[in-house]
Amino acid sequence: MSTNPPKKSPADDLICPISLELPWEPVMAEDGRVYERECIEEHIKKNHHNLTSPITREEMGTRLFPAIQHRNTIETLVESGVIDGDLADKWNEKVEQKKEMEKLLKKAEAGDGSAMYSAGIKYGSGLDGFKKDKKLAFQWHKKAHEVGDVRGNALMGWCYLHGTGVAKQHSLGLFYLIDAASQGSNFAAYDLGMAFDNGNYGFNVDKTESIRWLEKSLGNCPHMHLAVSGTNEARQKLDELKASAPASSATS
Length: 252
Hints:
Layout: E1 26-29, E2 34-36, H1 37-46, E3 64-66, H2 68-79, H3 85-109, H4 113-125, H5 134-146, H6 150-162, H7 170-182, H8 186-198, H9 207-218, H10 228-244
Antiparallel strand pairs: 1-2, 1-3
Helix pairs in contact: 3-4, 4-5, 5-6, 6-7, 7-8, 8-9, 8-10, 9-10
């Protein structure tokens, strides 16, 4: 008994063959296939010494061309309901995500310090549809600092200390980090506490100072932006330090 081939969906020729999703930023590669830009750029980066098409396995170049008509077709088919289900749901999530990105950046560009700080976080980690860009992350943290946001102050200092998105400047980074910790940034206080424990940033190992700053990071700081993982690490390290410290040097 013969069986009919599976019915072809309008989405079959539109999905990225790497992500298997509808590409938000479709580009045509030199193999003639359309991919999500981020996916094919990652493929090119990983295989640049011996670059072949991820589909045909034949040699290909590195040039990518925006596939504007491809994106327009996807948009039309999703909006009209011709493409539905999980593919459409994920596409619509990206649409909403894009709206939230634009809203946040609009507030940041209008001078909102909290939005500036958030933009820096999202660019730094590649969150919520923001493309990871450490230079842009630093620039937004710097802008947040300039309008008085202590969290931006802390992250700008951290970037200077690590050379993340900006040339490393140890003394400048330490100045801003200490200033932010003194103003109640629990992230900055945590980072100083760990630095004193490990002898980082040019500090001598000083368990008493480490305990002091870690306690501050876990206290009632007015600027709470330390990740939960950092809070847990600070609590664990503080317990270890207090357990090993002489009774006279341990702080309450």
